[in-house]
Amino acid sequence: MTVLQEQEGDTLDAVAARIRSHVVDMCAGPEGGHLGGAFSSADILAALYFSVLNVDPQRPDDPARDRFLLSKGHAAVGLYAALAEKGFFSVGELTGYGRPGSRLMGHPVRAVPGVEMPTGSLGHGLALGCGFALADRYAARDARTFVLLGDGELQEGSVWEAAIAAASLRLDRLVAVVDRNGLQLTGETEGIAPMEPMAERWRSFGWAVRDVDGHDPDGLADHLDAAPWEPGRPSVLIARTVKGQGLPFLAGSSASHYVNLSPRAHARAVRALHTRETTG
Ligand SMILES: Cc1ncc(C[n+]2csc(CCOP(=O)(O)OP(=O)(O)O)c2C)c(N)n1
Ligand SMILES: [Mg+2]
Predict the structure, then answer these.
(1) For a Cys staple, 122 with which of 18, 77, 109, 153, CB 3.0–4.6 Å?
(2) Which residue range or ranges hold the Transketolase N-terminal domain (predicted)?
């Protein structure tokens, strides 16, 4: 039986805090996990699943649903936490993450309720999103498709092919979110392949652009709810984030990218999250 986790009167901040807490627990398991990018996108995921997306965990295949694609599929632990909190499967299932027999693996697959496409090889989500948005148009459905991209992922040329296609097809039901945490696997994106001014780049490709604080879930929800922002143009929200946001000893550091927390590090992380929650 599916256990519904959504709690009445929940704030988006509270949901994001629970997502981070589940991620910390999963990253202490045998598989470890991509904590940094899951933490930078936790507020985005909370806003999407608990305010924006028209999805029903009881009807995950409803043709009229909105779609969400985690193009940066390595942040799977964040997605699993959000899906479990939303009620697509039980929160208890998260303890099986990365263990033999579990469907919750290091990268998401379609066997997991709520996962629209398997992702993990970077650079494909936006093109897939174009396909979903086009299919909705042909079927005369007014659903929207949201795609979450990493900022390092933007170095993949296929992202820009998709950006060109979306603009030329006038796919204004397509919304991209860039998790602009400034870090990729091995260091700073601006040191490796500069992308600024990022808003201008997207604008020049024909997209409507907003450049915002990625750790304000209510603000994020307002922007995403309002898309499309310009008729006939796809929308991209550049969400300014911090990789590992929420854990002082990892935040803003490449070391947060992938972690396998020891019992001691796990206890420290739990304490840090608790302190953050109780002191704001
Ligand atoms: C095509 C491809 N190349 C390389 C990788 C390995 N890889 C996994 S995560 C990552 C860094 C991604 O950085 P970013 O997109 O900024 O993600 P975030 O900072 O949100 O974790 C890389 C290179 C991959 N998954 N796919
Ligand atoms: Mg990044």
Answers:
(1) 153
(2) 15-262
- Residue 100: Cβ within 10 Å count: 6
Q: Which CATH class is domain 12-279?
A: alpha beta
Residues with CB under 6 A from ligand 1: 34, 36-37, 40, 72, 74, 120-123, 150-153, 179, 181, 183-185, 243, 257
- Could you tell me the two tokens for 20? 């981070």
Does the pLDDT value for residue 3 go beyond 80?
A: no
- Tokens (6 digits) for 108: 């998401």
CA of 222 to the centre of ligand 2 (A): 23
Mutate to test the pocket of ligand 1, among 71, 153, 181, 188 (most ligand atoms within 8 A of CB): 153
pLDDT for 8 beyond 70: no
Mean pLDDT of 212-228: 98
Both structure tokens of 123: 């650079």
Confidence of residue 9 (pLDDT cuts 50, 70, 90): low
